[in-house]
Design a protein that fits this description.
- This protein has 103 residues and is mainly beta.
- It has one domain.
- The protein is built from no helices and ten strands.
- It has a four-stranded antiparallel β-sheet, with no helix packed on it.
- The N and C termini lie close together (10 Å).
- Pfam families: Ribosomal_L21p (PF00829).
Length: 103
């Protein structure tokens, strides 16, 4: 089975056993949860597409852990006024493992 889900404002193609990194979720590590925003499901030759989501289809997943991404350095500069600012940003991610697709 194959599905396309929406998680954290982004779309991900998933199958059972898939690991993916999404925006940070407020869940504890090893916490199971279900994703109800399923956009498409493919089972063999049957394809179901939602408008925008499918009803009665859910994807069960588990949180593997939380991590932070690589540091991104940003600069602000204005000419002739001695204005310079340097800032850094590290995005937080949640690693999710897909257990099953039902529906």
């Amino acid at each position: 089975m194959f599905a396309v889900i929406e998680l954290g404002g982004k779309q991900f193609p998933v199958q059972p056993g898939t690991r993916l990194q999404c925006e940070k979720l407020d869940l504890d590590p090893n916490a199971p949860f279900t994703v109800e925003k399923v956009l498409m499901v493919k089972n063999g030759e049957k394809v179901k597409v939602g408008q925008p989501y499918l009803k009665g289809v859910e994807v069960r997943a588990k949180v593997v852990g939380h991590a932070r991404g690589k540091k991104i350095i940003g600069l602000k500069y204005k000419n002739k006024v001695n204005y310079r600012r340097k800032y850094g940003h590290r995005q937080t991610y949640t690693t999710v493992q897909i257990d099953s697709i039902t529906g």
